[in-house]
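Course exercise 7: structure representation. Students receive a sequence record and must write out the corresponding structure in token form. The form below is the worked example handed out in class, using Nucleotidyltransferase (312 residues). Read each field label carefully; the graders check that inputs and outputs are placed in the correct fields and that the protein name is recorded exactly as given.

STUDENT ID: A-19
EXERCISE PROTEIN: Nucleotidyltransferase
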Amino acid sequence: MTEACIRTAVEAIHSSPYQTVLYLAGGASQILGLLLSVPGASNTVLEAVVPYSRMSLIQLLAKIPLHFCSQQTADDMALLAYNRALKLSSPGSPVIGVGFTGSLASGRPKHGEHRFYMSTRTADRLWISKVTLTKGLRTREEEDRVSSHLLLKAIANACKVPSNDIPELSESDVSDECVKQFNEDQELEQLINGQICFKIYPFRSEIPAERKIILPGSFNPLHDGHIKLMEVATRICGDGYPCFELSAVNADKPPLSVSQIKDRVNQFEKVGQTVIISNQPYFYKKAELFPGSAFVIGADTAVRLINHSILR
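STUDENT ANSWER:
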């Protein structure tokens, strides 16, 4: 892959609306230089973490993986990166979680394969790939470059921008990949089950501000009082992006069904108001999920919060 092709691919990625978090272990280190050396990286890269030691990766995953270099580990890293990107991104921006784990050439001979696993997660798609490199064909630096170029292509594909064919793989290298697609119902099921932390429906027409002004509620139904409360709060708070927030999981009731969630979301679409569907019924968890946001509450909710704090 020539430098000109690389730059063209990176410029296309930075020009796309997608924002990305990358978790990388065991290789593809050059991807960071490729992305950050081209102007516009702040449009794309929200965060990059390299959990290189075993303990670092264990802490990231919050578990000991069965295999540190495996497709499951790459998928877990991509899902964590996706949820992290949701929290860091501008409201309504599409996000990508990238997971990479590799076992490449090192200073000592390896008995197993030289291989790496890649995974990219978006709202409606999980792309996974395993690449097995021919042992002894390349140096560690060359294997890292190959893995970085292939990961760049994967990110470009996730951003839905063109990427040229990459000629680094030899005939003896082996590459396998597959794609899993999600529809809206499946995404909401993942939210209810706790796999993803929230889903935003950006029905407002204006460009979102980085700070959110959030009005939580059950909205069964949404009424004028909710809209007017948000309008007043927005005037008081000043700069911010108004969002209503509905938790699919309740503290003392069964979770909402997918059809119930979609019915309530339809109310917001009709009036052009952005709504976030989360799975956090408690305010302290909402505050952790949306740091830096201003929360708007009605009188009844304020009384419940005060009474709860007194009881504790």
